[in-house]
Amino acid sequence: MLKKLLKKLSIAVLVTVVVTLCWCLSYLLPYLTAPEQPTAELVVNDITRLNPIKVAKVLRPQTEAELVQQLMNSSGAVSVGGGRYSQGGQIALSDSLHIDMRSYNNIVSFTPDKKQITVQAGITWRDIQAHIDGYDLSVKTMQSYADFTVGGSLSVNAHGRYIGEGPLINSVLAIRLLLADGNVVSATPETNSELFFAAIGGYGAMGIILEASLQLTDNSRVQRQVTTMAASQYRNFFQSQIRENAQVVFHNAVLYPPNYNQMAAVS
């Protein structure tokens, strides 16, 4: 009799333990299972690699028709990226259709005698300079790095290093812009001027810049000079030796860590 009782108790305890374990596992399983990781091609990051953003789809268009079709078939958010040098998560939006413009990078036309070139927005300034160098021409607004895309630089209206030349918009003759409704419009400082001035520096809010016509300039050799000084001396140095000096083409100054009280003025 005692043996039968112990057997029944053992079975009851075993069943209780199994049920308890099953319940515990069902509760803990979501925490024990690793979350699904997005595939690498759906994660967009900037040049720092500090701002990964998961998007719904990445499009790398090579034709205008493909770009228009994909845009019109999309019902959600759209983000646009170029060289990915804009930092802090500016180049993409979560769960968006991300348009990577770097394959949209052809030279559309080039007229050396007029010193003008029309390019697709995904081309880099380095590629433009390589193409026009044999004609002894140069881009008119030289930035600090040549790996930026034209579309990205226009979208932020990047400044150059020239003394007195102002931002990039001053060298832009015209742009072609893809609007949210699928229409493609041309804009210049005189025609569709509101779109022209809103799109350049507009971070893509007005539409996708497809092409840009740029004014070029003559190429010339420059000599690099570096002057080191205390940061407190720079203001007087710039006013007296740089601001009105016709011999200075480019200029920038670099502050050095850790205390940022020493600097190098590069001309």
Automatic annotation (TrEMBL):
Keywords tagged on the record: FAD, Flavoprotein
Cross-referenced Gene3D superfamilies: 3.30.465.10
The keyword Flavoprotein is annotated on this UniProt entry: yes
Domain FAD-binding PCMH-type: 48-219
Name of one Pfam family that matches: FAD_binding_4
PROSITE patterns in the record: FAD_PCMH (PS51387)
Source organism, top-level taxon: Bacteria
Protein name: FAD-binding oxidoreductase
Organism: Rheinheimera maricola
Organism phylogeny: Bacteria, Pseudomonadati, Pseudomonadota, Gammaproteobacteria, Chromatiales
